[in-house]
Amino acid sequence: MNKNNNNNNQRRGGRQEEPYRINHHIKVPEIRLVGENVVQGVYTVQQGIAFAKEQQLDLVEISPKAEPPVCKIIDYSKFKYEQKRKLKESKANAQKAVMKEIRFGPTTDDHDFEFKLNHAKNFLQEGSKVRAYVQFVGRAIVYKERGEKLLLNFAQKLEEVGKVEQMPVLEGKRMFIMINPKASAVSKKDKDEQREKEKIEKDKEEKEKIEQLKAMQEQGSETQNQTENTEMVENAEPEPKKLTAKEKQELNKLKKKNQANNSNEFDVNKI
Predict the structure, then answer these.
(1) What is the pLDDT of residue 189?
(2) pLDDT given for residue 93 in this prediction
(3) Which CATH number fits domain 99-185: 3.30.110.10, 3.40.50.460, 1.10.3720.10, 3.30.300.20?
C-alpha cells in the first residue's frame, strides 16, 4: 500500500516539467504562427489552438523569447521523441572521442621520439586524444624522472595542436600523460585538406583545358590539310584521255591529208 502511495506521489509531485508550452499553457495574447499547412502570420492564441484542433495536432511554442512568441502546429509527442533522439545521438557522438596510445621506453632515442611525435600530431589534428606513456621494465623504474622529462618534452612539442589534460602520473610500471586536441588545430587541418582538394581540382581542370586546346589545334590542322588537298585535286589538270583504235585511224588520216596538202603547196610555190 505504501509502495503504491509512493508511486502516486512521484507521479503527482515528481512529474517532469514539459520543455515546451503547448495549447492552453501558452499564456500570451498573440503568437506568430509558422510551419506547414498554415497561413503564416500573427494570430491570437485561441486562433492558433483552433487551427491545431482542425488538424488534430498541437500548438507548440518553439521560440518563447521572440516578439511575439513563435509557435508551430505539430504532433507534440513525435516532436518530443525527435528532440530526445537528437540529444541522445549528440551525446553518443561526444562520447565517441577516439583515444590513441603511444608508447615510449625510458631510453627512447631521438629518431624514435620524432617518429612517434609526428604520429601524435596527426592523431591530434584528426580530433583524437593522445595517451602517451613510458613503460618501465624491471629495474628501469629507477629512471622514472627520465620518463617524466620525456613526457613533458613530448607535450611541449605538441603545444600547437594539443592541450595537456593530465600531467604525467605513475600507475604501476607505467607513467601516463593525456593530451586533448585543440579545435584550432583540427580546423586548420580541415582547411589544409580543403585547399589541397581545391588545388587538385584546379590542376585537373587546367589539364583538361590544355588537352581540349590540343585536340582543337590538331583538328584544325587536319581540316586545313584536307582543304589544301582538295584544292590541289581541283586545280590539277586532268590526265589526257587515251584514244580508241577508231580515233587513232582518223587521226592518221588527218595527218596524211595535212602532209599531202603541205606537199602540194610546196610544189605550187616551187613552180
Answers:
(1) 56
(2) 63
(3) 3.30.110.10
